[in-house]
Structures are given as structure tokens and as C-alpha cells.
Amino acid sequence: MSGNPCPYMPEPAKISPESETASVSKYQLKPPAQFQSKLLLEIEAARLKKLEQEEQDKQFEQRKLIMERERLPADEFWGQRVHAWVVILPDNQAGGARHQEVLEPFFIEPSSGQHYSLDNHQTNLLYHGIESLWNDRNYWVNMQTCEKACEEIDWNLADNSLWLSLLPSETIKELEMEMIKPDEDFSGHVDKHLDMPTSYVEQIDIQSLDYERRFPNGRKTMMFKKTKVELFAPYVQMDGLIEKITVHEDYECEKATHVYEKYSKRGDKLFQSTFFVGKGIKIDLYKRGRSDAVKEHHYSIDGDSVTDERTLEFYDVVRSDGLSKIQVHPHYLTQHYLGRKDLLYYRNVEFSLKKTTNQNTYHREVSYHYREDDVTRATRTFIKPSDRGDRLVFNPEMTYGYNPDPLAPLEKSLDLFYLLETQLKEEEQSLVYVHEAERLINTFLTLRKSEQGIPKLTVSQFDRNRNDEAKAAMFAHEETLREQSERQIEEEIDYLQPYLARIGNPDKLTKNQAFQVQQECLNDFKETLVNRANRIWRKFQVIRLNFEELQSQLAQADDLTKEEIDSLTERATEANFEMHTLDVRLKRHVELSSTRYQSMLSKLNSHPRLSSLSEQ
Predict the structure, then answer these.
(1) Is residue 308 located within the same domain as residue 385?
(2) What is the spatial distance between Cα 450 and Cα 445, in angstroms, rounded to a whole number?
(3) Strands ordered across the beta sheet of 379-383
(4) Which of 200, 203, 226, 282 is 20 to 30 A from 251, comparing alpha carbons?
């Protein structure tokens, strides 16, 4: 069990502080005067200060007790143990492979695979200093003091005052090579020096399944300070669990407070789950790709029904209705929307207790937006008729309202009737929306229950170990390629078959027939070589003319823009490269033509069908 903090703990969510700008009105009311005794205020301030000081002293004593308990026992070999680990240094060259990837040096612990930053205080507690470091090219001895562990080490390996190299430095050698002039003899300036010995370890060959398993039997358990970490390889757990972190409140790790879980390859897109043991609340996070576009699910582990308290967050950009969040409570249901064309962003439904018949009176209040320069807004309240019958009968006593403008004309009864009718229709539609929300939650809970009962894991189409169809197809393709290569090796090309077919393919050729077949084959082969050379030459001439035209256009580039000049320059460079390639091909073809002709002649002389030519 390690007393170090757990390096696997998830980072807390960064919440950007909201900028609260206090709006100061020109006509702000002054607060009433406070008639309080200054003596009483001073006594109260002294009492609060004393309580605050007592609380600080109490917290200090608690921290002191914790430090005493966490203090490790005395170790007579502290700082004397030798250990080997990996350091990744940044690439200082501008065109280096790691110039943008690695900006600061960091350590990698081989026993755990964890990386440690050098500016972390925990790193200095683990690594007390460096005696030497090496790679496949050289061995360096640290000439610096490590009074502050590895925090102030200079990693400039080219400085011999900081790092003394065992072998001549490659960097110094490269600087000496750059000082050699082109016309000087290169062999006289190359220094012969020792190289690092080759590794005595054979090349490591790890099977793909063993590489994926990562740990013995595919799992590993580590104990840290008040934390238990369980790691699993992919596909080892049936539910896709790859990491489980249990945080405890005691050092014996008996009382859990939080459980963090990470998942991989889940078909339901679940990738992280957080369980608060004391509150009984669980938070599930999903990736994009679900049919219902669920992003987060906050719920109680004891609640499985639609009416239980829970919160669902969605990827609103994926959903057609713009739904971003649903908050469910036994007494209310709230929906939040984003990016809707009808500007709807909030809908709230409250579930109240059933009332008796004589109290069954319903009101509908319509609130309007504030007009400019108004401190109040207009409202209109309707009393829902108890029985509408076949058609709605409007009575002016069924509504009353307020208008901040005293000079505004009275609303017409017909307009109020249409407004009441609209409100009644929206009431019916609101019930439909509530039922749809409940149906959505019920569907999600049903689907989630099946996903947790029998979780399905996805398999990549490039996974040769688990994708049977892809594995069978790849094996079949490899077998086909192997058979084709064997067939090409076994079957040697017979150049005389077309010429023998012209004369009827006799069983035995006369001397004249054999000579005629041989000459026809050689003449066709020479013609093929000449035609190939002519094709290369004609293509070379076409590209040369194009290159000369581009050169003339660049010479008259006074009226061209920078983009056009760059385009012409790029095309001219490509044409010049193609000309060089064709020139090399033509020279090589001419050099190998005689060799190829002699090879063809020797094959024909040794052909069994032309054996009559060697007979006397």
C-alpha cells in the first residue's frame, strides 16, 4: 500500500466564474439609516473574529494530526536506493519529430507507466536526484548537484560542464562536419570513435492479445492514500469496465465515499460513471452516437420509476426539438431547450394534489414582455369555463387584465374570445407535451435497464482478434496472395508459345522451323526495346516543351500576381523533376538493353523445343 496521492483521480470540472456586474441605477433608492450602537458592532465583530480564530486553530490541529499519522517511519536508507526510470526530453531542433509534441522534460515510471512533471512537488519526493542517463547512442554522467532533487537540473546534454559524456558527442561531431568544405577530402575529417554496444536483448515480439491484456490476467489492483484503483484490460470485464477508483474517508479503506468508473467499447456509449456513496446519487456520462442523444444522467440508485427524481441532459444540436435538459421531480417536471425557431427555451409542469369538486376552478394567466420605459408589464388572466359543451361561449366576466398604459384602448370581446380559445388549445397541447416527456423518460429507463442487464460491447472492423468476419476475410486474402506467389514461382513464362502456335504447335521442329521461330522472337524483342525507348523519348520531349513554355512565362512575370508566380514555379519544378526521371529511365534502359538481349538469347538457346539448332 502506497501513501502517495492517487495519480488516477479524475480532474475536477473547471467552472468558469460568472462575471456579475452590478447594475447601478441613476435613481436608485437610498437604504434607510441603520440606528445601531457602534459598541455593540465592535463587540459582535470581536466575537466573530474569536470564533474564526478558534476554527482556524482547530483546523491547524487537525492538519497537524493528519501529517503525524501520514508520516512514514524512519528509513535509514532514505535517498540511497538506486532506481532506473525514463526521461523524455524535448527536441530543440525546429524540424525535429517531437518539437511540437514535447515542450518540457518529464519522467515515466516503468513500474506503473505513470508520467510525472518536473514542476510537481510529488516528483521531487519520488526521485531525489540523477547520477547518469543513457540511450542507444551515448552515456552521460550528471555533474550537477541535486540539492533540490530534479527540479533545477539543466538538461543541455551538449554542455560538458553539466553532463560528461562517455563517448564523443554526436552533436559536437555534427558541428565539426559542418565546418568541412565541399572541395576537401571527406575521409580525412571523419573521426573514428567508439559506439554504444549493441543491445544484448533480442527484438521483443509481443502478440496483439498479450499487448491488449496489459496486466497479469488482464487486471491490476493498486492501493494509494485513501484510494483503491482497479485497472482492467479491454474486453476483460463483461460490462466494458477498464478503470475503477474507490475513494475512502479512512486510511484502512473501509468506508467508501466516491466511486469513479470508466468504460470502453460500450454499445450504449457509456464512458464514465460517478457514484456518491453517502448521497446514493449516481452520474452517468455518455458519448455522442445514441439514438436518444443522451449526454448525462443524474439519478438516485433507489429510483427506477418515471416519477423519481432524476436529471437528463442531451446533445441539443443532435435532437430535432432542441431539448437540452429534463429535470424530473415527484412534484414538477422541467424541460430546457436551445436553438428553437419558435424561441421556446423553458417549460415547467407542476403536479399538485387533487382538489375537491367545489374547489375545481382553473386560471390561465398570460404575461407580456416589458415595453420600453415601463416598470410593469401587461397581464391577462382567464377563468377556464367548467363546461364548454359543443362550442365555447365567451363571457366578459371570464377574464380580467392589467395594462400599464392608461390611454390604451380597451380590448375587443372578439379578440379576447380568440385569445381564450388559443389558450384552451395550448392547454390541450401542453398535456400532450407532458405525456411525450414522460414517454421519453420511460423509454430511456427501459432501454437503460436492458443495457445494464446485458451490456453489448462494440468490436472494431480492424480488430483481427475479435471480428470474425474481418479475420476470415484477411486470412482468405493472405491465402490467395500466397497461392498466387507460389503459382508465379512454379509457372515460368514460355516466350515461344505464340510463335509455335502460328505454325500449328508441332511436336518436333525442324532445323529451319526452329531457326525461324528463334529469329522471330528475337526480332520482336528488339522491336519491343526500341519502342519502349521511343515512348520514353517522346514523353521527355513533350514535358521539355512544357517546361520551356513555363520558363518563358516566368521570364515575363511583370504583370502576374504572387499566387500566379508561385503556381508557375511549382509547375516548372514538377516538370523539371519529371524530365530528370525520364532521362534516368532512358539511360538505364539503353544500358540494360544489351544485357536483356543476351539474356533472352541464352534462354532461347537452352529451350528444349529449339534443340534441333544444336544438332549437326
Answers:
(1) yes
(2) 9
(3) 363-367, 379-383, 399-402
(4) 282
CB contact at 8 A, 87 and 110: no
Q: Which three cell numbers stand for residue 347?
A: 417549460
Give a yes or no: residue 226 inside a domain.
no
Q: Which residues contact 374 (CB under 8 A, 6 or more apart)?
A: 404, 405
CA distance 565 to 555: 10
Task: Give a yes or no: residue 99 inside a domain.
Answer: yes
Q: How far apart are the first and last CA of the chain?
A: 95
CB atoms within 10 A of CB 104: 11
Do 109 and 59 share a domain, yes or no?
no
444 and 562 housed in the same domain: no
**Which grid coordinates are listed for 256?**
467508501
Domain that holds residue 270: 266-453
Crossing angle of helices 511-555 and 562-605, rounded to 10°: 170
Asked, for residue 413, whether it belongs to a domain, the answer is yes
Residues 92 and 59 in one domain: no
- Give Cα separations from 196 to 87, 200, 270 (angstroms): 19, 12, 49
Nearest-angstrom CA–CA distance, 176 and 47: 77
- Residue 269 region, left (φ>0) first, then alpha (ψ -120 to 50), else beta? left
Same domain, 53 and 138: no
Number of domains in the chain: 4
Q: Residues 285, 270: contact at Cβ < 8 Å?
A: yes
Length of the chain in terms of residues written: 616
Domain final residue pick, 178, 210, 244: 178
Residue 436 lies in a domain: yes
H helix or E strand, kind and range, residue 244: strand 241-248
C-alpha cell at 438: 414522460
- Decide: 586 and 533 in contact? Cβ < 8 Å: yes
DSSP E strand stretches across 294-438: 294-300, 310-314, 323-329, 332-337, 346-350, 363-367, 379-383, 399-402
- 79 Rama class: left (phi>0) / alpha (psi -120 to 50) / beta: left
Q: Which of 178, 201, 235 is the last residue in one of the domains?
A: 178
Whether residue 271 is found in the same domain as residue 376: yes
Low-confidence spans in the chain with pLDDT less than 70: 1-2, 12-26, 93-99, 169-194, 353-366, 387-391, 393, 487-492, 615-616
Same domain? For 116 and 55 the reply is: no
